[in-house]
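Appendix B. Chain record.
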Amino acid sequence: MNSLFDFNKKSAMVAMAIVGICWGFASLFIKLTPWSSFQIVAVRSSMAAICLSLYILLIEKKKLVFNKTVLFVGFFVCFKYIFYVSANKLTTAANVVALHQTNIIYILIATCIMNKTKPRGKDILIIIATMVGISLFFFGKFTFSGMIGNLLAAGAGICTAVLFFMSSKFSAFEENLTSIISGNILAAIISFIMSSGSSFEITPVAIGSILFLGLIQQSFAFITYTKAVRIISPFACGILVSIEPVLSPIVCFLFLGEAPGKFAVLGTIVVIGSILIWSLSDVKNTKKDNL
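Structure tokens predicted for this chain:
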């Protein structure tokens, strides 16, 4: 089993594409699961915490590492999962994945603040373009639940930015994965408390969906990501997993008939398109600097 995650550059790129596909189906299976958001998080996070812990202890033969940074990141991981699942229950998959994808903008802003550097002209443009794109999600047909869902999706993007930004502070693979485990444990505890007294509807669809979310989308995909990102560049990882915001609304439309509004479609194009253009421009400049 250890060889399954023993990547070279080519296999790492394939693995990241698979991760993008796994994440692209997350919204569909969250919506298919006939449980509340807290019930889904409680079971999914419990499964993930157990699987990831067993992987580190039995496969990697390493110990879990708990320190202030790990627990700090774990706190944001917890609410990333709660916000993301809750958002999918309240608004469309297109809205969720696009607003979640804005995490790269928060990382950019945090990097400038932490490094005490001024943003470049194109950095300012991408921030403005993304903010305009985000604002479009709050136009069109108004529903209170949809508005709350959009806000939660944006919150999940901020939590994801903290996760990615702080991951660079970890000195070892097991620290990174321990932060995910601690976040899953906290999310499971909070969610079990919040859903106490609620009955779980046991159906084949519910069981199949939660197994995918806990074992494939949460455990397998994240182990694969944390291994592959150490071999190929963050830019390559970002491009390869960008299949998620494209695939997620497509599968939700095909299987659930869920169609985003015209403003949401426009917002998605602005957010995803501007981030992609900025990323391509950034990597071109990096290559020129290395010549």
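Further analysis of this model is presented in Appendix C.
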